[in-house]
Write a structure and sequence with these properties.
The chain is mainly α. It folds into two domains: about 55 residues; about 30 residues.
Length: about 90
């Protein structure tokens, strides 16, 4: 897993890593793999467009989950606080 990327960007990170590897191989060998690199670059651009075009839905879900978790924590903390103050009891 690539840590400089968000989870939804992992396929892009993996593809870019492969492109970087091919560039290193290409510079070390007499065999040209420029065509393969070009194909992967195009694939990376398309994948990036696809990932980011669907991003709003994924972000909405992630934000909803975070809000739910944070809201539940806040409610529990307030119930505990009010219980200690004698204002609320189960």
């Amino acid at each position: 897993m690539f840590h400089d990327y968000l989870s939804f960007e992992q396929p892009i990170a993996e593809l870019e890593a492969k492109i970087d590897e091919l560039r290193l191989v290409n510079s070390d060998n007499r065999i040209s793999i420029n065509e393969e690199i070009d194909n992967l670059l195009i694939k990376s651009e398309r994948l990036t467009e696809k990932v980011y075009s669907n991003l709003s839905n994924e972000l909405d879900v992630a934000i909803d989950k975070l809000l739910k978790i944070n809201t539940e924590k806040r409610i529990k903390n307030r119930i505990n606080k009010f219980s200690k103050m004698g204002i609320y009891s189960d």
